[in-house]
Amino acid sequence: MRWLDRLGLAARGNDEVQALSHGNQQRVQLAAALVFAPEVLILDEPFAELDPVAVDVMSGVLREQAEAGIPVLFSSHQLELVERLYDRVGIIRSGRMEACGAVDELRRGGPERLWVDAPQAPAGWAQRLPGATVRRTEGSRTLLELDAACDEQAVLRAALETGPVREFRRDVPSLSAATQAGPRG
Known about the structure:
185 residues, alpha+beta, two-stranded parallel sheet, 7 helices, 8 strands, 24% strand, elongated
């Protein structure tokens, strides 16, 4: 009952599992696993069909288990949620480990990308920058992808030559976007 209460299901303790929603069934399954004080938790899509409050409750319990030294491994297609909750992940695609590491490492593992807001720059100014590819334009803002030979200071100088620069910052993609680009170390 302690785990049912902690997972927000104390009022449903006498209900048949098959009568519960899928999200509540997920929480019951976690409670059942925790009763046995496992040495490792391995979960398959534990956040599937959970509402935001249930996600917060379940992720809090899983975080507590991890902080207590219990490894928590789970599969999930919800990379935005994984990125928000956990600091180390492994990305498996087609049965192969594609990337593994700290979330920040994986997010930054792709090519250098910069947002530049040069409001007085003529149209197409960034397309003439050697080693830079325009990925997106939003009004006067341009998202550039730089190859290894492109110097970000040269990009800044080129932007300043067009007039004032209101923004010049690195773009840090979501984990989902970062892993779409292909394998990383």
